[in-house]
Amino acid sequence: MSIDIDLRDSMLKATPNLRxxxxxxxxxxxxxxxxxxxxxxxxxxNIERFQPGTNMQAWLFTILRNLFHSEYRKRRREVEDADGxxxxxxxxxxDQLPHLDFEDLQKALxxxxxxxxxxxxxxxxxxxxxEQAAEICGCAVGTIKSRVNxxxxxxxxxMHFDDMDEDIGPDRVTLSVMHAVA
Length: 182
Hints:
Layout: H1 5-26, H2 29-45, H3 56-76, H4 85-89, H5 96-110, H6 114-125, H7 130-137, H8 141-158, H9 164-167, H10 172-181
Helix pairs in contact: 1-2, 1-3, 2-3, 6-8, 7-8
Pfam family, one: Sigma70_r2
GO molecular function: DNA binding; sigma factor activity
Keywords: DNA-binding, Sigma factor, Transcription, Transcription regulation
């Protein structure tokens, strides 16, 4: 691609000012140089958009500024991890156990009496208040509270929960592996 000599000269003349502006934006000489280089490459690739007789330096500064803001938005979502320590510390729990736990919960729910299951699902899963659940079921609030309590206790029994804090969530082996990796 051939570029007009006057345009090339005006781009070269603007380069030191572009570099100074880029350094002031990035506070990093290497990143500033990369930004200036990318600016000049974009300007050359889109030189047909430049209006002869207008201010070349202003056009280049606009390109540089837009590139900087695009890069800033992109980098804001990234985590710098040159040595890999951050990535090495990341761990994910296996997803098989929650799936199996959910299957166990479904089976246990199916074994509950209908009125207890209905009350528990209205209050526990659907987020209705006891009063709203009582209205839906056409019974007293105390009846709903009793059904929910009995359903929770029966579920814990069916699923063999002794201590709710330890029985829900990752087991001790999974936790120890995750803490050893982190």
